[in-house]
């Protein structure tokens, strides 16, 4: 393996994807071009987001009543998720069967039917076309051909999987059952989504100037948390010497970073981190932290990534879905949905909302990530033929009982290389 930068300035002319070669070292090297090449991005839309995966779509708590809907995204594509007549959850593309118009203009709402503004084609809550103006013409003139059938006309359908109040979507009928899809990671999903009714607390939205994968990798990268996030270290929320683990499913695509707050600081770890520690800082309002134990087991933080677009955040008592919506190779939207449980006390809700100050575009912790991801994209883009080194914690893709590792990133790329055929 040759790690010396080649010093060939980027030509910015993308190679055809067929001639792309993954560098030697398999998943311990990530070529920079996977973050910048439009052809790679296009193949991701087709094979990852358009393939047999389950993308997070919405929480059922957002659409409790018949006719409640949200517009969400699977990869780049807009999908309407709506509560049907019989309590079921339906999903279909926001694209009119007539001329492809993205007919639903509200991000969320309640309706009895959908109408395309262009030619007023009408849709029921399952996405079927129920009405076409001037279908039979006017006074014997025009209209659709006599043999044109309205039967089976619909906005492109999207498959739905529901588990404990969370809605997942797939364009591919061959997607396996959601529980099988999550594999060994199902227990971490069920830890937060244990069947209790959820309550949405609010939304945050931001656009970040980096490739979508860098966000996903960020939550598979505990290494950075102990050095980049000064807030976490300063106030004792995360240290490398805490009892922790990184676990994946068998495919490597999903993962969980599990850690436990507290315990005596190890001297060596403390010295390593001393540069970033500000011991003189105190919180003016200690209620900003003030976590209480609420989940079984002794983990205080579990950050889970579910391929291909979801981060489930459980940092102390602040819970959020972070949905990744790719917006071209160099940008993505990060949609945060903060939630709690319907049976939370008002105090608990307040605590969740307070702790949410660590998160989001201006979050005391997350702001670091948004900034560093954009910096990554800048540096990567200039050197497409160079590659990331991903060897922290070894070169394998096995679960590890500590956080000084990039194993979950390696596992992700093991799967990614397969799916993408690179
Ligand atoms: Fe981070």
Describe this structure in words.
It is a single chain. This protein has 422 residues and is an alpha+beta fold. It has two domains: 55-161, Rieske Iron-sulfur Protein; 184-420, Naphthalene 1,2-dioxygenase Alpha Subunit, Chain A, domain 1 (Alpha-Beta Complex), CATH 3.90.380.10. Helices cover 21% and strands 24% of the residues. The chain has ten helices and 19 strands. It is globular and about 85 Å long. It starts with 28 loop residues before the first strand and ends with a helix. The model is unreliable at 4-11 (pLDDT under 50). The structure holds fe (ii) ion (FE2). Fe (ii) ion binds at residues 218, 224-225, 229, 369. Fe (ii) ion is lined by residues 218, 224-225, 229, 369.
SSE arrangement:
Layout: E1 29-31, H1 38-49, E2 55-59, E3 68-74, E4 77-83, E5 89-93, E6 108-110, E7 114-115, E8 122-123, E9 129-131, E10 159-163, E11 166-170, H2 178-182, H3 186-192, E12 198-208, H4 212-218, H5 222-225, H6 230-234, E13 244-248, E14 255-259, H7 267-273, E15 301-306, E16 310-315, E17 318-326, E18 332-341, H8 346-355, H9 366-381, E19 387-389, H10 407-420
Antiparallel strand pairs: 1-19, 2-11, 3-4, 3-6, 4-5, 7-8, 8-9, 10-11, 12-18, 13-14, 14-15, 15-16, 16-17, 17-18
């Amino acid at each position: 393996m040759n790690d010396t930068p080649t010093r060939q300035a980027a030509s910015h002319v993308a190679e055809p994807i067929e001639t792309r070669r993954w560098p030697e070292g398999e998943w311990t090297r990530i070529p920079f071009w996977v973050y910048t090449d439009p052809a790679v991005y296009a193949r991701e839309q087709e094979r990852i987001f358009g393939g047999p995966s389950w993308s997070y779509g919405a929480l059922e708590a957002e659409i409790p009543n018949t006719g409640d809907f949200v517009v969400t995204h699977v990869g780049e594509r807009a999908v309407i998720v709506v509560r049907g007549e019989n309590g079921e959850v339906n999903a279909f593309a926001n694209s009119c069967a007539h001329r492809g118009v993205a007919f639903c203009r509200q991000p969320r709402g309640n309706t009895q039917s959908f109408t395309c503004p262009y030619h007023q084609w009408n849709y029921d809550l399952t996405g079927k076309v129920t009405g076409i103006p001037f279908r039979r013409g006017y006074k014997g003139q025009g209209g659709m051909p006599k043999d044109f059938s309205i039967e089976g006309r619909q906005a492109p359908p999207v498959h739905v999987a529901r588990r404990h109040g969370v809605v997942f979507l797939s364009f591919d009928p061959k997607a396996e059952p959601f529980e099988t899809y999550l594999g060994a990671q199902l227990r971490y999903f069920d830890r937060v989504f244990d069947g209790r009714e959820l309550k949405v607390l609010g939304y945050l939205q931001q656009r970040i100037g980096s490739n979508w994968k860098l966000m996903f990798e960020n939550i598979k990268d505990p290494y950075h948390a102990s050095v980049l996030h000064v807030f976490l270290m300063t106030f004792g929320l995360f240290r490398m010497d805490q009892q922790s683990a990184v676990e994946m499913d068998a495919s490597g695509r999903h993962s969980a970073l599990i850690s436990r707050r507290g315990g005596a600081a190890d001297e060596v770890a403390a010295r390593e981190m001393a540069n970033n520690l500000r011991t003189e800082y105190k919180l003016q309002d200690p209620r900003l932290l003030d976590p209480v134990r609420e989940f079984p087991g002794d983990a205080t933080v579990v950050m889970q990534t579910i391929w291909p677009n979801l981060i489930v955040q459980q940092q102390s008592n602040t819970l959020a879905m972070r949905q990744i919506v790719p917006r071209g190779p160099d940008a993505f939207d990060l949609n945060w949905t903060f939630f709690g449980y319907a049976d939370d006390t008002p105090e608990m809700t307040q605590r969740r909302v307070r702790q949410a100050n660590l998160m989001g575009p201006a979050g005391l912790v997350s702001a670091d990530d948004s900034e560093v991801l954009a910096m990554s994209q800048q540096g990567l883009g200039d050197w497409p033929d160079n590659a990331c080194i991903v060897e922290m914690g070894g070169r394998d893709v096995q679960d590890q009982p500590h956080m000084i590792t990039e194993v979950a990133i390696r596992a992700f790329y093991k799967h990614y290389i397969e799916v993408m055929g690179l």
